[in-house]
Amino acid sequence: MPAPRTVLLTGAAGGVGTLMRELLPAYGYELRLLDVVPVAGEPDAVVADLADRAALREAVRGVDAIVHLAGISLEAGFDAIVAANITGTHHLYEAAREEGVRRVVFASSNHAVGFTRRPGEGEPRVPVTTPHRPDTFYGLSKCFGEDLAQLYWDRDGIETVSVRIGSCFPEPTSVRMLSLWLSPGDCARLLHASLTAESVGHTVVNGSSANTRLWWDLSTARALGYEPRDDSEAYAEKLIAEQGLPEEGSADDVYLGGRFCVDPPRWPH
Ligand code: NAI
Ligand code: 15L
Questions:
Q1: Closest listed residue to residue 240, CA positions, set 174, 191, 186
Q2: Catalytic residue numbers, as ranges
Q3: How far apart are the first and last CA of the chain?
Q4: Dist. CA 140–CA 15, nearest whole Å
Q5: How would you classify the pairing of strands 46-47 and 159-165?
Q6: So what's the architecture of 6-261 in CATH?
Q7: pLDDT of amino acid 269
């Protein structure tokens, strides 16, 4: 596959989309932007809902690859999650199939496996082969997205890298994020590796920086050529002083998904 040049970035108005709009062009990509809300400062962005199949088909026409970030990014009612994340992602893959787009990078989440126990001291990091254990309807929609990607690879030959993003924000803001943080720079590096690696079929990767306190294994991401450069440890002393360590036996202490397992934050936020 020749290296993609033109890339559709869905969810371009969101937190990760805004960061990636700034960082990905340095890798040589020409971005086409899409979101259900206008993208600030980007008059050419496509404003469309993932429900609009005709608009999606037009938006993917002629692009080499898609980075799919759009959707509900926290817990919400089941019907809303189904519409945006399940039906919407299906619409996007159908548009890709109809228009001959061969590579997708799908923003999955740690919440697809949120009820997985986090490793204790000296225990191995959680691999991507750990069974799906969604902690919310939101996490369940990410499990669906990963399976949908598998189907479109096996049946239609569309390649996908499903990136289980840990916590992608400019800085980690909680003690839990010290283990899951994906810095914006490393996110761009991981998306670039996912867009350019040869023959990925459907590959699932855990998406974090090279954090000292990492809970999960980055080997499938590294196999794509991802070389993380950042480590959340620089923020550890301050965050632990401010927030303390999680209470023993609490969701934040036990599960990868933390409080999503018991009291998930709601969307919109
Ligand atoms: P966000 O909520 O800031 O951005 C999502 C964007 O999708 C928004 O701009 C929203 O307007 C758009 N959107 C929602 N429904 C849509 C629809 N029906 N049609 C078109 N656009 C729609 O989320 P964020 O943080 O930027 O995350 C991006 C993606 O990465 C999401 O899929 C999220 O689930 C995933 N993710 C993010 C993580 C993080 O730490 N930020 C962690 C794990 C996964
Ligand atoms: C996610 O999947 C969310 O989209 C994001 O807003 C964060 O809450 C992140 O997980 C996390 O677990 O920190």
A1: 174
A2: 138
A3: 39
A4: 21
A5: unpaired
A6: 3-Layer(aba) Sandwich (3.40)
A7: 58
**The pLDDT value given to residue 124:** 97
Q: Do 34 and 48 contact (CB within 8 A), yes or no?
A: yes
C-alpha distances in Å from residue 265, one per residue of 77, 105, 268: 12, 25, 9
Q: What is the pLDDT of residue 267?
A: 86
| Cα–Cα distance measured from residue 186 to residue 82, given in angstroms and rounded to the nearest whole number | 30
* Atom 4 (ligand 2) nearest CA: 73
Q: What is the pLDDT of residues 129-167, one digit of tens each?
A: 999 999 999 999 999 999 999 999 999 999 999 999 999
Nearest to 23 by CA among 191, 177, 232, 224: 191
Among the residues of the chain, which ranges form H helices? 15-23, 53-60, 78-81, 88-99, 137-156, 177-180, 184-196, 219-223, 236-243, 251-254
- Pocket probe mutation, ligand 1, options 20, 53, 73, max atoms within 8 Å of Cβ: 73
Closest-approaching ligand to the CA atom of 136: 2
d(CA 166, CA 208): 6
C-alpha closest to that of 258 among 132, 50, 110: 110
Higher pLDDT, 138 or 269: 138
Please work out whether the CB of residue 73 comes within 6 Å of at least one atom of ligand 2. Answer: yes
Amino acid at 68: H
Give, as one character, the DSSP assignment of residue 86.
I
